[in-house]
Amino acid sequence: AGGLTFSTMVLGVSYERSFVPKLQYVSEPTANGTFEIFGPPPPGTLSVALELAASEDGPSIVRVPGTIAATKDPDRRRATGVVPIGQLTPGDYVLRAVVSLDGQPIATLTRTLRKAPS
Question: What is the pTM of this model?
Fold first, then answer.
């Protein structure tokens, strides 16, 4: 990925400005995905989108833009995004973070999200 490396994506929810890791959801309306990007900033525009799918290589049910924010370390950035999950039926889903450089995908991170019956 152009000299970049990525942490594992962590799923969770935001409660009053704090992030709480979570893999199983029941009645939450949204799920947050976050991970870090390491390496010197590449020339061009780095972006991220989050996709929710029924399987790792299945079509996306929903795709939303995420954000990439600088940190105090010039070689580290934090990517985040929020996907709606309130209307999902119970089951396992895959959250994919697609990192792109100038609109071209360069990396995909995945994590399983479980929607439990309420």
Answer: 0.91
Tokens 């999902």 found at: 88
Residue type present at position 105: P
End-to-end CA, the chain: 40
Please give the structure tokens belonging to residue 54: 């029924």
d(CA 76, CA 94): 25
- Block residue for tokens 């600088």: 70
Antiparallel, parallel or unpaired: β 46-53 and 10-15: unpaired
Residue 5 has pLDDT above 60, yes or no: yes
11 — alpha (psi -120 to 50), left (phi > 0) or beta? Answer: beta
